[in-house]
Design goal:
The structure holds 2 protein chains of 2 kinds. Helix content of chain A is 14%, strand content 18%. Chain A is of the alpha+beta class. In chain A, strand 2 and strand 3 (57-61) form a beta hairpin. The longest helix of chain A is centred in the first third of the chain and has 13 residues, at 13-25. Chain A is globular. Chain B is mostly beta strands. Chain B has 2 domains: 4-85, RimM (Elongation Factor Tu (Ef-tu), domain 3); 97-160, PRC-barrel domain (SH3 type barrels, Roll). Chain B starts with a strand and ends in a 7-residue tail after the last strand. In chain B, 6% of the residues lie in helices and 44% in strands. Chain B contains 2 helices and 14 strands; from the N terminus they run ββββββαββαββββββ. Chain B has helices at 69-74, 97-100, and strands at 4-14, 19-24, 38-39, 46-47, 49-55, 58-63, 79-83, 94-96, 104-107, 112-121, 126-131, 139-142, 150-152, 157-160. In chain B, strands 12-11-10-9-14-13 form a 6-stranded mixed β-sheet, with no helix packed on it. Classes of the chains: A alpha+beta, B mainly beta. Chain A binds chain B through residues 27-30, 32, 48, 50, 56, 58-63, 66, 73-76, 81-92, and chain B through 5-8, 24-27, 31, 35, 82, 87, 90, 93-98, 100-101, 118-119, 121-127, 137, 140-146, 148, 151, 161, 163-166. Strand 4 of chain A pairs antiparallel with strand 8 of chain B, so a sheet runs across the interface.
Amino acid sequence: MSRSVWKGPFVDSYVLKKAEAARESGRNEVIKIWSRRSTILPQFVGLTFGVYNGHKHIPVNVSEDMIGQKFGEYSPTRTYYGHAADKKAKRK
Amino acid sequence: MSDLICVGAISGSFGVRGEVRLKSFCAIPEDIETYSPLSDEAGETSYSLTLTRAIKNGFAARLGGVETKEQADAARGLRLFARRDQLPSLPDDEYYHADLIGLEVFDTGGNLLGRVKSVMNHGAADLLEIHGPGLKTTVLLPFTLAIVPTVDLVQGRIVADPPDGLF
């Protein structure tokens, strides 16, 4: 069952405070968070979060199309390398 | 940067008519056929490749020089390689993982941070996994224009401006 709309999206309060502080300081830094369950809000766009995966903080650059997802979705807890083959990486 | 890139592997025989089970490592699995002829790890033996159908966990395929089930069984574990120059050229700011892996990473002051171990993508931006001499564990660096302003494949180096708290 989905979450009631009247409650609004869930975000751990410390994530909001850290994001606000980072935005005000204007420094280029990784905001380390442990809250994988927090929802990505519009005010997080453009910030870089280090989302803990139980081992280390995975850098997540928040973009507009990530709004509404949870931070944990971008920080997998299992390692799989696979083969490079013809896979491509794009600088954005 | 190696000249040969592993694009697939033979996982066994398929049927009794000399077809093989093929695992493709390509971004679009069917693309492995476009890189034919492929070679073995040493680059000495060349194999033509034709995909016949999609099966569970890969493809059934015909491999040049493999005509019987016994030969297909013997080919199990064979890794297939394409030459780097067979891959199509890419637009600016797009790179093959195989080209990035192994490059040295320097900060804007010219200090060596480490070497690219792998390239990952977990749904957000691409990430460079960097392994350095002074690092206890690997560090993940977002592959963005702001953080990685320079990629020089000719000199084999990347210049990065990592955000505070990464290294």
